[in-house]
């Protein structure tokens, strides 16, 4: 079981980084004037990071570390972990976020399901442009205690895109 301190640390890191991604999406990419900046949207994104993304990623990376044998070269192990991550975890986690973000924004279930039907495949296609290489680096070079933090830093880019895609 994850300790409360680890939960809080991972959650806080994810909340800050996901909030930054949403802020960048709103101000730089969507080019909203500061007066139109949606603070509540960023706060909701931070809450998702704190309560879901940080803790879930920590649990997943800890589990993934036990699934792939340590008795192999680092790069080969990193590639295997990336393949497991991108085939087993990423599609379901992206689907979860594709439902939760609009739900937190007050959308109705039927609208969310329709959005997922329309956008999920293209979101996953874009995910596969960024994440496989980022995860090979993560799983090959980054110590496990810093993997969630590293992923959250890379996720600033991803969260900008995801925030725009899920907050249309």
- Report the uncertain regions: none
Number of helices: 5
Please report the distance between the alpha carbons of the first and last residues: 37 Å
Taken from the alpha-carbon principal axes, the silhouette is globular
Determine the structural class based on helices, strands and strand pairing.
mainly alpha
Secondary structure: helix percent: over 70%
Report Rg: 16 Å
What is the beta-strand fraction? under 5%
Number of strands: 0
What is the mean predicted local confidence, pLDDT? 91
Largest sheet: none
Order of helices and strands: HHHHH
InterPro entries: Mpv17_PMP22 (IPR007248)
Protein name: Mitochondrial inner membrane protein Mpv17
GO biological process, one term: regulation of mitochondrial DNA metabolic process
Keywords: Membrane, Transmembrane, Transmembrane helix
Walk me through what this model shows.
Belongs to the peroxisomal membrane protein PXMP2/4 family. This is Mitochondrial inner membrane protein Mpv17. It holds the Pfam family Mpv17_PMP22. The chain crosses the membrane at residues 42-61, 82-101. The structure is a single chain. This protein has 168 residues and is an all-alpha fold. Helices cover 85% and strands 0% of the residues. The protein is globular, with a radius of gyration of 16 Å. It starts with a helix and ends with a helix.
């Amino acid at each position: 079981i994850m300790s409360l301190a680890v939960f809080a640390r991972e959650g806080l890191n994810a909340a800050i980084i996901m909030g930054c991604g949403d802020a960048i999406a709103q101000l730089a990419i969507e080019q909203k004037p500061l007066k139109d900046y949606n603070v509540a949207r960023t706060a909701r994104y931070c809450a998702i990071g704190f309560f879901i993304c940080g803790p879930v990623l920590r649990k997943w990376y800890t589990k993934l570390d036990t699934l792939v044998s340590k008795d192999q070269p680092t790069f080969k192990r990193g590639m295997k972990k990336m393949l497991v991550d991108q085939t087993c975890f990423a599609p379901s986690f992206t689907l979860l976020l594709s439902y939760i973000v609009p739900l937190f924004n007050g959308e109705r279930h039927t609208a969310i399901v329709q959005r997922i039907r329309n956008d999920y495949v293209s979101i996953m296609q874009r995910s596969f442009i960024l994440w496989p290489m980022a995860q090979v680096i993560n799983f090959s070079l980054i110590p496990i205690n810093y993997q969630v933090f590293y992923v959250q830093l890379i996720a600033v880019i991803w969260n900008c895109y995801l925030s725009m895609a899920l907050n249309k």
